[in-house]
Design brief:
Shape: globular
Strand content: 5-15%
Structural class: alpha/beta
Oligomer: single chain
CATH class of the largest domain: Alpha Beta
Largest sheet: 8 strands, parallel, barrel
Helix content: 40-55%
CATH superfamily of the largest domain: Aldolase class I
Strand order of the largest sheet: 3-4-6-7-8-9-10-11
Number of strands: 11
Length: about 325
């Protein structure tokens, strides 16, 4: 049974991936209700934390019902990352996670996120300093390598374990691939099955159905899976995987009523959390998944993603409820 430090995660934990502008407290609340075992915050800039930048500091907010939860930090300066670790520890997360995986140009090309995969000695040195500067368990999220020719993850995982990390989550793509092509889990399996590795290894990349989660578990022996894009606007993925693993059967898809309630609640929490402008804006990426495959929904979706006003959106939800009120039955 995988453990991170003293944190017991159950038999085969499902982790919510840290996603910028997605893994915020409103979304995490919904994922937790649907069975996510361990969640991470959006990644937080170490420089932002040191400068006390409002956006970075707000991301430190975590709630008791979310536990166990990890706060994820990123940066390219060892000293800044050490200081950020100390600031983060005061927010009392269960885990501190280091982002060595973000492929986005403005992060990676400054040597942070996946950018550090071009400098493995610095990656190891930075990790060692972060581990030394906190009493909390430190975990790492990373990728297979920078590009096709530098997939050193098997050696990298050993070296990070040797300097004290308590778990590693590996996305099965290189930085160069971004999110294109298929995730390659063979090297994730090699890390897990390396006799020298004794920390939990979590796989990430293209887990979007219960069958895929089971296949990854059987084929590669990973300790759990981390789910990112498949959860956006679809927090039910966690309960569906758990049910399938336990019974071999599929849960019925969420009913229209459940979808409407979840999207409406999510919007309400988002507006409370971020203010109306941002709360409304950042919800837009979720709607297409909340209502994916629903016939005759296109006009409502257009309204949801174009209205800027919270009150107008509440009216749209009122219209949706009326239009789909024939029992609000389960939908495919």
């Amino acid at each position: 049974m995988p453990k991170i430090g003293n944190i017991d995660l159950g038999e085969f934990p499902l982790l919510l991936a840290p996603m910028e502008d997605v893994s915020d407290p409103p979304f995490r609340a919904l994922c937790k209700e649907q069975g996510a075992d361990l969640m991470y915050t959006e990644f937080i800039s170490s420089e932002g934390l040191i400068r006390d930048a409002a956006k970075s500091v707000q991301k430190l907010d975590i709630f008791e019902y979310e536990r166990p939860i990890g706060i994820q930090i990123f940066g390219n300066e060892i000293e800044s990352m050490k200081q950020a670790t100390e600031v983060t520890e005061k927010a009392q997360p269960d885990i501190i996670d280091i982002n060595y995986g973000c492929p986005v140009k403005k992060v990676a090309c400054k040597g942070a996120g996946a950018g550090i995969l071009q400098d493995i000695p610095k990656m190891v040195a930075m990790t060692a300093e972060i581990v030394k500067s906190t009493n909390l368990p430190v975990t790492v999220k990373t990728r297979l390598g920078w590009d096709e020719d530098t997939k050193y993850i098997v050696e990298v995982a050993e070296r990070l374990q040797d300097v004290g990390i308590k778990a590693i989550s590996i996305h099965g793509r290189t930085r160069k691939q971004m999110y294109k092509g298929e995730a390659d889990w063979t090297l994730i399996g090699e890390v897990k099955n390396n006799p020298r590795i004794h920390i939990p290894v979590f796989g990430n990349g293209d887990v979007y159905t219960p069958e895929i989660a089971v296949e990854k578990k059987k084929k590669y022996g990973v300790d759990g899976v981390m789910i990112g894009r498949a959860s956006i606007g679809y927090p039910w993925i966690f309960r569906e995987i758990k049910h399938f693993m336990k019974t071999g059967e599929h849960l019925p898809a969420p009913t229209m009523k459940e979808r409407i309630e979840a999207a409406e609640r999510h919007l309400e929490m988002s507006v409370k959390w971020k203010g109306e402008r941002l709360g409304v804006l950042e919800m837009r990426r979720h709607y297409s998944n909340y209502f994916k495959g629903i016939p005759h929904f296109k006009d409502y979706r257009m309204k949801l993603v174009t209205h800027d006003d919270y009150t107008a959106l509440q009216d749209v939800f009122g219209e949706i409820k009326q239009a789909f009120d024939e029992d609000l039955v389960s939908v495919i």
